[in-house]
Fold this protein.
Amino acid sequence: MPNDPADDRANLLALQRGEASGLNHLISRWQRPLLGFAYRYVQNSADAQDLVAETFVRLHEQRGRLRPDTNLSAWLFTALTNLCHNHHRWRRRHPSVALDEAGGDLVSRDQAPDSALAQDEALGALRAAVDDLPHELKVTVLLHHYEHLSYREIAAITRCSERGVETRLYRARLHLRRELAGFLRETSPC
């Protein structure tokens, strides 16, 4: 769905006037992209849904403080990024066994079992490597590669320069190459 700041501003103003329709429109506009980002960050659909819901609760609570010219996409992604980061840190300190889906929709049912297993292993290795990135790098990679945001949009969310976004992506790619080097050598044909 294309980003229309004018619609976002109109819906924010409606929300600030107390009209429930403003929040409903913002939720229908932003729920899917926020949920995609949150899921990729925390890798658990129930937790992602809770974090997105909390983001909208915070939007409602903070509605009076937001200026009419607020970059709503940046505000929403920043709030969600902070919630995801705090949740991720809490989960690392309080590990549990996740009964979440294992990415079954990513593998075609028509694939040969050995091919599907190799793809699952590759996706698992990539998820683990992205999960191990430092917070700033992880957020930048997820926003750029999965949410397809521009450097300018990412800079607004992460509060750094566009050059800083480029640098973070470069560092993240180096980190991922280093982390996945052993896996790639192991799975490449001889």
